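Researcher: I'm preparing a figure for a lab meeting and need a structural model of a single chain. I don't have an experimental structure, so a prediction will have to do for now. The sequence is pasted below. Please return the structure as tokens so I can convert it later.
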Amino acid sequence: MHGTEPVITPEILLQAYACGIFPMADAADDPDLYWVEPANRGILPLDGFHVSKRLARTVRADKFEIRVDTDFEAVISGCAVSRSRHDSTWINDEIRRLYTALFNSGDVHTVEVWRDDRLVGGLYGVHLASAFFGESMFSAQTDASKVALVHLVARLKRNGFQLLDTQFLTDHLARFGAIEVPRERYLKLLAQALRQPADFYCPEEGAASPPLSGAAVISVLQSTSQTS
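Model: Understood. Here is the structure written out token by token.
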């Protein structure tokens, strides 16, 4: 599609996710998007999430303040920053337009990591039924994105989510227990997750309520997660 005349609507984007497809751009200054449907899909099994003992201590200590859905623009801007001259971003203006609309409609969520009232890390993703599609994360301080991921997984587990889609498998995600599954297997997992509703917010938590403490997060994960 050509970026100067928007063709993809937020509604079409959600339908694409429900079919196992997602959009990407070649670069931030490229106005075009293309659809991606990997032959092998990265997922992070919620019952196989791995947290190192060191990271668990960091989470328990509440060294960071965790906020949810308070500053999407800052999160996607953080994710869009190139990490180095060899690592360009794929988040272009069209991606920003679409996911901002989905955030405003409640279909995209953020987990934000703050320190001294400054956003130092976080992630965002799409929520459909009991599936969460992780889009991107960033870290401007040691462990910030890792802490965001730990809080996300605890939230998804506690609220009955069945699928955490990471799109691709990276060495970083593999350390947390992420795996690759063939497209056919992924589509079955997706179909199951789409049949079961799940709320991103905890039952007693409104959108403005503070997230779980670090100790509570680790407690949620301890039942099935691995630590080393």
